[in-house]
Amino acid sequence: MKRVAFVTGGASGIGLSISQHLARHGHSVVVADLNGENAEKEAKAIREAGGQAVAAEVDVSDRIQVDEAMRIARGEFGPLGILVTSAAVSRVEPFTEMTAQSWQQVIDVNLTGTFNCAQAAISDMIEARWGRVVLISSSSAQRGARRMTHYAASKGGVIAFGKSLALEYAPIGITVNNIAPSAILTPMVEQQQAIGAVASKDAMASRVPVGRMGTGDDIAAACLYLCSEEASYVTGQTVSVNGGSFVGW
User: Which one of 8, 28, 126, 214 has the fewest CB atoms closer than 10 angstroms to its CB?
Assistant: First the structure.
C-alpha cells in the first residue's frame, strides 16, 4: 500500500536519497527542508521522474513551522503514514570552546526537532493504526565523537527517544526505528572536509572495513525496508549502516 511520507532534511544528502527512494516506490513524498528553494527544486525533480512530491520549507526546531508544514502535507496528499527525521546540524568544536548557544542549537534541531515532528505526525498514524517512523541518528551516539559532544549527545537522545516511542505505540501498529549511519559522504561532511574539520574522504574510507565511504542510497535502502509492510515486526531497533566501522549496540 502506498503511503504519504514526510521527510525532514529531505532536499539534500541522506534525506534527499530517502525522498527519492520512497517516491520511486510509489509513496507520496513531502520534501521538508530548511532550504525552501532546494526543497522546491528536488520535489519538482521527483515529479518530473514520475513520482509524487511537494516541498515544504520548515525549521524543525520551530513547532509552529512543523505544524504548518504538516498541514500543507495533509492538504496535498492526506494523512501521514511515514515520517523520516533526517534534518540535522553538525559542528566540530573543542568542548572547552563550545558555547551554550551552540550546544542549544544542536539540541534544538537534532533532538527537539525530532520530538516536534514525531508528535505532530503521530495522530494520523494512531487513527489509522498503522505508521512507520524512522529516525536518523549517528554512530557518534554509539561510540562518542571527539569535539562533537553536542552532536553525539543529541543523537544519543534520538536513539533513546525512538526506543521509548516504539514501546508506547507498538500495540497499535506503529513502528519506530532509527538508522545510525557512519562515514557517509554527504554535502555536510564534504563541507567539513573542505575546512579540515574532519578527515579526508580517502582517510575516512581507509577506516571502513568494506573499503569505501557510504552514500545516501545506502541509508535510503535500509529506510525503505523499515517503512515497508514487511518490517511490521521490527521496532525499537537501531540499524547501524556503517560498512562495518562500528560493531555493537
Answer: 126
Active-site residue set: 151
User: Which residue from 3, 227, 201, 32 is spatially nearest to 120, judged by alpha carbons?
Assistant: 32
User: Can you give the pTM of this predicted structure?
Assistant: 0.94
d(CA 228, CA 153): 29
CB 219, CB 7: distance < 8 Å: no
> Does the residue 191 lie in any domain?
no
Task: Please tell me the distance from the alpha carbon of residue 47 to that of residue 7, in angstroms, as a whole number.
Answer: 16
Q: By residue range, what is the domain housing residue 49?
A: 4-182+226-238
- Using DSSP's 3-state secondary structure scheme, residue 6 falls into strand
Beta-bridged to residue 178, according to DSSP, are 135, 238
Instruction: Give the total number of structural domains in the chain.
Output: 1
What would the pLDDT profile of 31-88 be if each residue is shown by its tens digit?
999 999 999 999 999 999 999 999 999 999 999 999 999 999 999 999 999 999 999 9
